[in-house]
Amino acid sequence: MAGRLILSIDGMGGDNAPRIVIEGIDIQARRRGNVHYLVHGDPARLQPLLDAHPHAKAVCEIRAAESVIGMDAKPSQALRQGRGSSLWNAIQSVENKEAAAIVSAGSTGALMAISMFRLRTMEGVHRPALVARWPTQKGMAAVLDVGANVQADAEQLVEFAIMGEAFQRALTGKERPTVGLLNVGSEDQKGHEEIRAAAKLLREAGLDIAVHGFVEGDDIPKGTADVVVTDGFTGNIALKTAEGMARTIGGYVKDAMMDGVLAKIGALFAYGALARFKNKVNPGNSNGAMFLGLNGLVVKSHGSADGPSYAAALEVAALMANSHYQEEIARNLARFAAAERAMAAELAARDAS
Amino acid sequence: MAGRLILSIDGMGGDNAPRIVIEGIDIQARRRGNVHYLVHGDPARLQPLLDAHPHAKAVCEIRAAESVIGMDAKPSQALRQGRGSSLWNAIQSVENKEAAAIVSAGSTGALMAISMFRLRTMEGVHRPALVARWPTQKGMAAVLDVGANVQADAEQLVEFAIMGEAFQRALTGKERPTVGLLNVGSEDQKGHEEIRAAAKLLREAGLDIAVHGFVEGDDIPKGTADVVVTDGFTGNIALKTAEGMARTIGGYVKDAMMDGVLAKIGALFAYGALARFKNKVNPGNSNGAMFLGLNGLVVKSHGSADGPSYAAALEVAALMANSHYQEEIARNLARFAAAERAMAAELAARDAS
Fold first, then answer.
1. How many beta carbons lie within 10 A of that of residue B48, not counting itself?
2. Which tens digit of pLDDT belongs to each residue from A232-291?
3. Which among A162, A212, A277, A292 has most CB atoms closer than 10 A?
């Protein structure tokens, strides 16, 4: 893959696929000329779209796939019946090392199930994690896990920290992103046992990570830490709550601006400013979540993405593929394994003496 | 306590106590004339405030307390050294049945520790829960637990549902508030084992509760269910995340309105509408959380409350004291205990056959 980057695309996944897929590639092709796309899907639907989008056409190769996995397919169903679908084949292009990453706007459950099955977890990672990008007062944070696992023990939380830190560096270019553990207070004795154990491991395992310590829910939008680590249950609920708050508040602002003559005049003048703000705050608008910890890069676009936001997911894939993500996390995972061996040996020695 | 309602007040707890306490009582006295207050604290500081607030003066009785528990006191410290403080004595007035409820704007940890120690948990309740009022698109929801316990098993979640449902009825007057369990999806097989078991118990235990089923994070601000049940870890993080989002978005709206000449003109006209919206959305602005499940009503005001919001916490205490909360939850707890006995007997019979 030296020189030209190749991305594998599930051309048929998404509420408005394949249209938004090709529109997204067309937008992205004008920004990054040096990326090539293997677009898996139905040639009869993809070819006319490419003919209408010359920038995309110049960088795409269609790979015929006979079926599509529905947006509401269950993971088990996708695994049993998904072979030959655009999603399955797109993942196989990564498995075969033809492409550096896969991007799909299809079913999250199907993407997770098939990519785990085909790509398998990286050595040293117990469970993959879904990471979301979350707009904060200071920029963009990475929050994980937001739903791949319903629980996580201390070791898994440390692995999430290692993966999230490298992800955040690849995406933002910040050399040493800070890592916080989501908790119900910032004092050492707060929270579940797993979280306190994870905090101790993070501090003592000799990882090359800037550890911030515990953060609370309101620290996420504040941007207190660049990476926020939690289990998939808590992370999913925090993320959905935030998305719901952003939508609800957006609605209130709109109502408030229509409430009375003065406000209506105000809204007339302030319309542009309010439209800008709406896109800025909702983590649901930052496209390009990733499924981290597999032997291959797996990017999830929103199912309801439009062309520009699909292009944002393609950019996430490109940034990750051009980064040293795999080496960085392999290094920290090795440090972590060594520290755990040392701690186990110490415990054994103490028990023996 | 027939006829006149008596509330016990921690006169010294809170960032701006005792001033805001007396201001709050003064406001509330004009709305509810029939409530009497036992105000525990330093007479030298309370008396001049009462002299300046004649409505409050008419309904307050000062009870001298020799000390104050600091806002950052640890629960263990409060338990050891809190005897004789305004908070301790205020709780004792409830324990002695002199007052129907205690209201404090002091340290949450100290309030929880001392009220658990003095009032003890109600029969049939394993652990008390902290309930928050959360403004939604449809009104006001009750969310619990938001931080009294870091975890909760299925039985405890059912107890939270029973307590939260009666709380919500007392506060909103809605006859049959709906109860949702916070989860990462609405399908039956989603989430932790405890949550799935709690859902089954809620449906099958013959409780007099309108069960909605699972809700997700974004359902809280939407108002999908009137009562949202979760463990204290998840609830605390959802609540803090929502508060942080509301503050962050409030800041963005302000910035957006100052961004450019047109927006500034708009802001000039829309100022009132925007000020109204700000108070409407943040769950942190709904004063009067409660610590449910004790032999006595315990209301927690924000530490930073001002007079009007302290009055809102007093109103929560009055609504609860005038409700049939204790009888309602005792009835559902008895139903729950009976259902659990029946299920245990059924299991035993199955094992024996």
1. 12
2. 999 999 999 999 998 888 777 777 667 666 666 666 666 666 666 666 777 777 888 999
3. A162
Computed on alpha carbons and rounded to an integer, the radius of gyration of chain B in Å comes to 22
What angle, 0 to 180 degrees and rounded to 10, lies between the N-to-C axes of helices B307-321 and B19-31?
Answer: 60
Distance from CA of B34 to the nearest CA of A (A): 36
Q: What does pTM read for this prediction?
A: 0.91
A72 CB within 8 Å of a chain B CB: no
3-state secondary structure chain A: CCCCEEEEEECCCCCCCCHHHHHHHHHHHHHCCCEEEEEEECHHHHHHHHHHCHHHHHHEEEEECCECCCCCCCHHHHHHHCCCEHHHHHHHHHHCCCCCEEEECCCHHHHHHHHHHHHCECCCCCCCEEEEEEEECCEEEEEECCCCCCCCCHHHHHHHHHHHHHHHHHHHCCCCCEEEEECCCCCCCCCCHHHHHHHHHHHHCCCCCEEEEEECCCHHHHCCCCEEECCHHHHHHHHHHHHHHHHHHHHHHHHHHCCCHHHHHHHHHHHHHHHHHHHHHCHHHCCCEEEECECCEEEECCCCCCHHHHHHHHHHHHHHHCCCHHHHHHHHHHHHHHHHHHHHHHHHHHHHC
Q: Which of A150, A184, A218 sits opposite B191 (nearest CB)?
A: A150
What ipTM, to 2 d.p.?
0.90
Query: What phi and psi values does residue A203 have, to the nearest 5 degrees?
Result: -75, -30
**Residue numbers in B near A270 (CB within 8 A):** 256-257, 262-263, 265-267, 270
User: At what angle are helices A154-172 and A193-204 packed, to 10 degrees?
Assistant: 60
For tokens 């409350």, the residue is B305
